[in-house]
Amino acid sequence: MELLAMRTKLSKLGGPEIATMLYYGRDRGLNNDGCADGGADQWTANLFHTRDIVRQSVLKEIQFVRILHAMEGVNRDADGNVLGDIDDDGQVGLRGPTNTTAAWGISLGGQLTAVLAGAEPSLDVVVPNAAGAGLTDISVRLGEGGLAEAVMLPVQGPMVVACLPTDEHQNPLVDGANPQSCMPEETEPTQGRQPQHAGELMLAWYAHDNAGFAVRAFGRVEGVAVGDLVRVENLDKNTTRVARVGPRGFVRVNIAADALGAVERRPLLGFTDDDNDPKTASDTTVLGARIRVSVLDRTTGVAKGVVDEWAWDVTFQNTVYPKGQPLVALQEGLGYPRNTPDFRRFYGIAQHVVSPADPAVWSRRYFDEPIQAAYDPAGGLGVFM
After folding, report:
1. Residue 384 pLDDT
2. Position with higher pLDDT, 374 vs 182
3. Residue 261 sits in which domain range?
4. In 3-state terms, what secondary structure has residue 379?
5. Are residues 151 and 190 in the same domain?
């Protein structure tokens, strides 16, 4: 109803299509569920994409400022209406040659406005609220929901996690079973939800789904104890990472791997534009790197269990990885553990890539090196607040 009302109002002003642009923009589906995912790829580990999506947003704002500048009481549209006369009284109601043009934004809007302040010198007042600068620094330090998942997981992952069932004191069970798995998100649709017995290690992938956090369990290994080793191998790259089960029964292993994204999987699985039903992969090896997980005795090094196939059907982003098919990485990633030299080196390089969209870089344009805009009659630098 709101869209219809807006379209009706804007039709009288000669621009009904603006309503659709405001509501839907250029959103596209990113996880094959049949729905558009607006803004889900605003901040990602795809550095060039993130850089350009920020710059594109600011470019739109610059263009809007120029449209406002054109509403000076002389320019008219194709029907002869004075540009900026929104109430048909013959007078410019927007901007005009003497009105103030200001910009304000908060959080993400504050970041965009802080870039706009340096890129568009004709603004009179700019007020970025709760903005931030040093984009890679923000991604490392900020705990905002969605940012860590979309930006950090592709850098640190793919990530295999595992856990033993614990008691009420978070100590691994010595005997018996826990009716609740140590991973609340895990599902076993072919078996039904099963209790997790003492010494039974649950294995899962940590993944991100449209800036959200996802856990997908894929297997169990029995007879595991604290101190045992979990070895993860990328069979296609011949690389290996090993970690030890901690005193609380948890372990995490990062390993670099290739995998197709949700959009790249669409033609292989036969998705159409309106599909929202899961599609089953007939050969999982075309979707991601083959992975083998082994659990080794802490003293002898003898394998207690090996998982290289999906133990049950697993669905992620509407793709079904069927039971018995080779275990593969759900998503691509660099596999850099946090606070390692490789991790820090990558983030140093990353900042160079995103700098053209960083408020910290554009801030020098506020006063020290303002952009010269003599070509614009309304150009010049206003007040930055």
Report:
1. 44
2. 182
3. 158-321
4. coil
5. no
